[in-house]
């Protein structure tokens, strides 16, 4: 590998964030692993270190300006790459959706992305290089019932990325949104039970009919796929790819 990059990933204590962190560390990059749960972030960092990689852990609440400021002030190295991955889910009809929970999802997955990107962009500009990769979703492009806040936040990521792509077009900074269908993570495992309850289906029926049936390929997306796409987007071959939605959907949206 020609260049070691300092990569900060949010929500990297588990799931997609941890998977991408471990894969990119294995390629020789230095990881700054952040999560609302400090012990989870530390566990991911230890896992990377045990495999011979470079990683530091830090607590981060992306919905808090004070938390972001504290993180930026204490960074062990300048951030070359930001992967905005932190997320959560709540499944309910809008009439039954607590508005404080609705607001929390937007704050974490949309406003938090803007807050952290805003905090790190000046340093990227100063060094003349930066890559921002947002982990979106198939729900950045399509909708499902009972997920109004999640769908709104993930749709918003694409519009946000397009604007920042234009604002950073004068320098070697890119921003893109990776939009996968379902990845087998703890977040998705919890969703299966919630979806079963809301749709009146068994958990197996949720997996078959709601999650995999819309995908002609019919398989869950892997961490390795998402890490490989991220590695491409932060590499030199993708320097003119910006403001794009990279759709990883097994053919869902071509039907």
From TrEMBL:
**Protein's GO biological process:** monocarboxylic acid metabolic process
Q: Which domain of life does this protein belong to?
A: Bacteria
Pfam family for this entry, one: adh_short
User: One GO molecular-function annotation for this sequence?
Assistant: 3-hydroxybutyrate dehydrogenase activity
Against InterPro entries, the record matches this protein to: 3-OHbutyrate_DH, NAD(P)-bd_dom_sf, Sc_DH/Rdtase_CS, SDR, SDR_fam
Which family is it part of? Belongs to the short-chain dehydrogenases/reductases (SDR) family.
Q: Which NCBIfam families match?
A: PHB_DH, PRK12429.1
Q: What is the name attached to this protein's record?
A: 3-hydroxybutyrate dehydrogenase
Q: Which organism is the protein's source?
A: Wenzhouxiangella marina
